[in-house]
Amino acid sequence: MMEALKCLYAGFRGFDEAGSAVPMMDGPLKPNTALDEAPVVLRLPEIDNLTATPAGLVASQGAGLLRLRSAGGALDAAEQQVFSSEISCLAADASGALAVGLDGQGIAIQGGRHDGLQIKEVNGTVLRAPTAALFLDPDTLIVANGSAEYMTTDWKRDLMNRRSSGSVWRIALGGKGREATQLARNLAFPYGVAVGAGGLLVAEAWRHRVVALDLAAAKPPRAVLSDLPAYPARIAPASGGGFWLALFAPRNQLVEFVLREEDYRRRMVATIDPAYWIAPSLSSGASFLEPIQGGARKKLNMLKPWSPSWSYGLVVRCDANMRAVASFHSRADGSLHGVTSLAESAGALFVGAKGSGAIARLQEQDARS
Amino acid sequence: MSSDTLTRIRYRYLPDHLIGEILSKRWIDNAVPFLALVVLVAVFGIIAPGFLSVSSITDLGRQVAEFGLIVLGLSIVLMSGGIDLSVASVFTLAVLASLIGTNVEGFSVGLTAIGVVFLGVVCGSINGYLIGYMRLRAFLTTLVTLIIFRSIYDILFLRMSTAIVASFSDSDFLFFIGSGTILGIPFSLWVTLIIAVGWHIVLSRMRPGWRLTAVGGARRSAYNAGISVRRTVFFAYVWSGALSALAGFLFAARIGSTGADTGVGLEVSALTAAVLGGNSLGGGRGSVAKAAMGALFVLILSNNLTNFGVSGPVNSTILGCVLISSVFIDMRWLRNRHKWLSKIYVSPAYLQLPPPPSATDANSPYALNDKLRSVEIIGLGQIDGPEDVILDRDDNLYCGTRHGDIVRFFGPDHKRHEVFAHIGGHPLGMQFDRDGNLLVCIGGMGLYKVTPQKEVIKLTDETNRSFLSVVDDSRLRLADDLDIAPDGRVYFSEATIRYEQEEWATDALESRGNGRMICYDPRTGTTKTEIHRRVFPNGVCMANDGVSFLFAESWIATINRYYFDGPKKGTIETVISNLPGYPDNINRASDGNYWAALLGMRTPALDLALSMPGFRRRMARRVAPDLWLYPNINTGCVVKFDEQGNILDALWDLGGQNHPMITSMREHKGYLYLGGVSNNRIGRYKLPDADPNWTAQDFYWGREGSSRT
Questions:
Q1: What is the pTM of this model?
Q2: Three-class SS string for B501-522?
Q3: What CATH number has the domain bearing residue B105?
Q4: Which domains does chain A have, with CATH numbers?
Q5: What angle do CA B448, B592, B643 make, to 5 degrees?
Q6: Which residues of A touch B680 (CB under 8 A)?
Q7: CB contact A12 to B (< 8 Å)
Q8: B352, part of any domain
Q9: Structural domain of residue B572, as residue ranges?
């Protein structure tokens, strides 16, 4: 009751209700151009799910699984296999098994002990949007299901419809997928998983935070990194301890405002192509049908780096407690936007920017705080 | 959709933009004291018997006359940034001097009046000299002179009281001043009214008043602006002293006696009245109306409290509380008014546009291409904001810049340039008249003419004020584009009357008919608004029939044709509606058709928001302006169309690499020259099959500049 009254008063006075202000990029998240300066090693439209395996880097492009090989200073891509649906996540274990998330169709295991296993649903829940997976051991797989309603490609609808129907599962592969534990539910688009000191770390995109879950049973999630200025995606362990966190799109005060404007949001979702919504995006500026904000108007033919933007490139280096220590940016005028996946290999971090369709190589000493 | 209909009706008939306009008026400061006064009169009118009777009002009128003069004098000092606590002492001294003059010494009434006012001038001069020229603190100085003047009164009163009581004046004129009426209004009130009206005119309409306000508002700036600060301050105190003395004379004429307690505590009442009316203690803000309202309020309150038997000390306490609360309200008001204003000034209207035609479809007349990506660039980095470009017969290229210059690039290669004329405002639309003069619309300034000899002449900067407008719409705020009829009449557009040059795009958030078409007639030198309430009227171009012109309404993506002469005189026809972008300047093409620039493209998200004014209003209140949804002006294009509204050609630069926005284009000898209001360059595009000898001047005005037939 008090909350409702407060909300009403805040609406009347035009205050910001809780959680709608967008945090500044400051401290360890202070903007720089490190991502734009990093050398691009491969240009590949729609590159996603960059993953380190014992046999080298793999990645996906649409429904195609690619094996990446080092070729001089750059990378070389070779298509290995084409799946029936867009690949939405990849996970490798030390023995060479690969878990392939297929958008709308669940998980397929390739190689290793459980080669050929297909997991379409667990405990009656369809894995419609497998956004992230992780082998705890060769027989145990963690799977994040981003949304119970929308496929991964429809992530914008999931956000703009204000859904929080994601779940995280621990699946015993030996039981043919039937022995599964739900570690968390009602998450707002879990998009990345990693094992850390506090348990299982999960990037909860629409709540702009990383939470820690218990590895064995369902317990309330505990926020370990919150109030992020962008939507988090995959988490990759860093060789020097700690983690790399990819953030795929910036938060924007106008988007937060639209999220609270029921009527407008509903009509926008119902009548407009998602590419032209007031919503975060993996890449922007390609079409004149995209909305723009006052600060993004070009002056003297320049888009200012600090312009408000629907897309952004951001990689954050976190310590073992998931505290941000350094960050790498591609700002509004940059060219490496929409980073969804990261993988460390041969002493360098490879940054997969799905929005810009490029993989860049980042050395740790480039870190700036 | 019924909810949409309701929204449309609500936004059409409830003009909420007026709230912001009213809040932006200077006189809105009077709203709070005026309401307080109305409430007070209503309350005492109900509870006090005889409050509204003629005798009561006449008596009140006499008191207001005297008290009002003191409050006016004090307000003048407050406006100059000072304070005068000695008004009551001067008043008392003047009462004594008047009685001595008329009763004891038997001077004539006129001589006494002049002498008393002179006494006030002397007292005020002492204050003014000490504060204005010696730079002493106003508060302390006038506190000291308050004590000194009062002491002089006490000394003189002791000596003269017997003489004053013993004699009295039998002058009828003095009696008339004290008790007579003209047309039912007390004589003294007439005096005060005349002085008040005079001061109102001085303060609101004349230089001395503006200087006074300037000194009070920002002393240093006033000094830097060349105002004699010391003299202005000095005369403020002189006026305060003179008006207080005049009040004392009127008081003496009415009462005919004085006592030990005459004028005690009057400075507090006067200060309460001045501040209550809304005269700022900090200086720079005040008016005669405020002083009058404050004086009325305080008098009505204290008189009625006395009538109700409230004792003097309690009465003073109440007045003190009123003073404190009015200072508090004044402070809150001052601090918050501009916040409220900035939150509510943007007031969107309902606008439902049909879905725009697709430009991505290859069969569309607007089909996308990259023709403009290869344009040659002229003046890169040398100009800022060439909204419009124009060429003369000698191939020289003219454009305006944000620095307030008209820059001329010398033909035929346009490598060298010079500042052709410096005007001061951002030049927008341009056109050559029959004699080769360059007529130009200047944002924020009006319509100007630059002769070939570089002489700058103002043609007009105001039009007739509309009858019911709240903001003063007679001044031209954003004159945008013009064209000249064959008979010499200049038709130009004013895009919006609610926003300044730099905020023009914010008008898109409102999408209301804030703009108008205006006609300047050089034969009579008159300016008249021809078409009211158009949505961001922009480009103007004479049609080939010579009796009509085309003009764009940007935010509703429409190009209209208006007949100013001929059989269809006064009618408006729509030529093109539902363009995929926002049309800006329109100019003639060599094949008899027209070019139009689209300054930006429509986006589905904004089109939807246009039909939801409540959404935009909340956005303007809650989201930072740099993050508001704007029309996409990062991509522009040029279209060619005919008088029937058919689109004949479209020229694009996708991604806006060469020309992020195009606000104007001008065809000249086979080339199209492109300008953009936030660009740092001019583009030149070779038209594949245009007449290489065609110039707009020869086409419109004839080869020798002779009349077109």
A1: 0.84
A2: HHHHHHHHHHCCCCEEEEEEEC
A3: 1.10.3470
A4: 22-366 (2.120.10.30)
A5: 90
A6: 300-301
A7: no
A8: no
A9: 371-464+471-701
